[in-house]
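Write out this protein's structure.
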Amino acid sequence: MTVAPLLSRADRFQALEALEVSEGLWQLASAEGSAGSIVFAEPTLIPEILQTEAYADVLLKQAESPPRAERMLAVLKGRQEALRLASTQIRLHFLGMTALRNQVGSAEVMAGQLDGLIATRDIIHIVPDEAGVWRSGTLALLRDEQERLSGVYVGDPLSSSFYTDQIPLEYAETYVQSLERASHSREDSMRIILREQQRLGLNVG
């Protein structure tokens, strides 16, 4: 399903050209703020929407040239701000244990990132790696205000080059249901994050 852009076609492509952002990522950013609910699934890294600026900066500089990394960081911050303004939106994240144990940057960067996970109002569920339910990388499943499926996005979190995938919406729903069955509760997931901070010797808050 094609997601209607928030800007006119001319303005949209002018912005794309200036920021060198893929069409798929622009579609995702345009759709996120207007969705009634979004499910994010990420097995190996902290989802972009939950990344601190320091954590995202490390990842982007590993994958992109400095000028492009700076532009992509600006795009990410814009997406995060748009979602913060969508106060009635429900956002659910499924994270693999690898995402918590894959230290990105310094201890201070990772401490700040784990603090951010604990402080977020989004709903987080940790999925044990041994559950064996991960079938793909980053996934975003969007529903409208009537909870009808409106889009599925997959992509590479290191390059932030999202694209619309033509997989059936029913498959995406089945995938999310398998993650729900395999994941820890919200409360247990928070305890797991706190335990990871202690394991890494990082201070909370």
